[in-house]
Specification:
This protein is mainly alpha-helical. The protein contains one helix and no strands. The chain has one helix at residues 4-55. The protein is elongated.
Length: 85
């Protein structure tokens, strides 16, 4: 039968190896999430820049496709509403 001291040492080593394994998994997940966040920020920045640059360029519409100006009409002058007392 193993002594209590030897069993305690075996459990102690098992505890630290389990803790190290969990820590390694957490660090790997943190690294993967960090890389994913950096890739997303770069992608969205490129997309926003492309959209911004495209907004300044005139569209390549033909003159027939351009919106036609609407003639302005003068609004008839209304008399003031009677005041209630």
């Amino acid at each position: 039968m193993p002594s209590f001291d030897q069993a305690s040492r075996n459990n102690y080593g098992s505890y630290w190896s389990g803790t190290a394994g969990i820590l390694a998994i957490q660090l790997a997940v943190l690294f993967v999430l960090s890389v994913a966040a950096i890739v997303y920020v770069n992608w969205s920045s490129d997309a926003a820049l492309a959209e911004f640059m495209a907004a300044g360029k005139p569209s390549a519409m033909e003159p027939s496709q351009l919106p036609q100006p609407v003639p302005l009409q003068q609004v008839k002058r209304r008399t003031a509403c009677p005041r209630r007392v």
